[in-house]
Amino acid sequence: FIAESDANIIKKRSSSGIVTSIAGTGTAGKSLHTAYATSSPLGIPSDVFVDENNIFYFTESFTGYVSVCFEGGRLYHYVGPSLNYGKYVGDGSDATLGILSQPNQIWGDTMGTLYVADGGNGLIRKITTSNAISSLGNASGAFSFNAPYGVYGDTSNHLYVSDLAASVLYKITLSPTVTRQVYSGQVGTPNCVYNVLASAALLVSPASLWIDELGEIYLADVSCGLLRYNSSGYTSRILAESGAGYGITGTSQFLFVANSAGNTVLEIDRVTHSTQIIAGNGMSDYEVLHGGELA
């Protein structure tokens, strides 16, 4: 799934390489609640997450919406109503009353809980299956971030959050007690340092995240390239291209990375690291590639 931000369209690339539009008309604007997804304008789609039931959720950074729909079906605002834009409200209430500002990556766990990087408000918003919205934190209050962009969870009750402005990757333990720690990078010290343990690595502009079934973390840093943290926390770089920071997902065999600088989508073999272009011709702006699964 590809969120083409500048074109205000969400596209799907099939396993046979066919690309089709599944949401948006190519017109920028406020998305239309209950309209067919392909008949509605979009407000700069930022990210797409597809759950186990093939329902896809996407964030709109301009309007602050999180919308939901089936492929070929109608679009519904899951978080909104895009009022008082830029001021977060709604915690403890129904998600449709929640306000987000520049939402970025979205991820959902196997229980149906969604987590959204609320970049403009410096928060991670949590939406439960009962549609209750809250800001992730502990008894002392919500965790604040400079500019959270990426959010993704592993199978051990941890959530990882990349802070684009702070040059840091955070690790949040969700149970039994919610805690936060710096996993990689150092606040206020932007640099590209890897081939070291996560605690010694330095980052510049960490953006999208993807974590595989073994707990290996792939972090797309806009300035440093695509970084890998193995299960022991050791870092390495597998793609040097700058600009390849705004989207990553994968399978057991391949990684798929949106190279916004080259306006392409790259396929990377996870063993050999061989790379090929699978979408885009360098002319259209494929800003973000991300999905819970690939069709």
Structural class: mainly beta
* Cα separation of the termini: 8 Å
Count of DSSP H/I helices: 0
**Major β-sheet strand ordering:** 3-2-1-26
Radius of gyration: 18 Å
Secondary-structure element order, N to C? EEEEEEEEEEEEEEEEEEEEEEEEEE
Shape: globular
Q: What share of the residues lie within helices?
A: under 10%
**DSSP strand tally:** 26
Q: Spans with pLDDT under 50 lasting ≥5 residues?
A: 285-295
Report the portion of residues in β strands.
35-45%
Average pLDDT reading: 85
Describe the structure.
- This protein has 295 residues and is an all-beta fold.
- The protein has strands at residues 2-4, 9-13, 19-23, 45-50, 55-60, 66-70, 76-79, 103-108, 114-118, 123-127, 133-135, 137-138, 141-142, 148-153, 158-163, 168-173, 179-185, 206-211, 217-221, 225-229, 235-239, 248-250, 254-259, 264-269, 275-279, 288-289.
- The strands form seven sheets. Strands 3-2-1-26 form a four-stranded antiparallel β-sheet, with no helix packed on it. It has a four-stranded antiparallel β-sheet with strand order 4-5-6-7, with no helix packed on it. Strands 8-9-10-11 form a four-stranded antiparallel β-sheet, with no helix packed on it.
- It is globular, with a radius of gyration of 18 Å.
- The model is unreliable at 285-295 (pLDDT under 50).
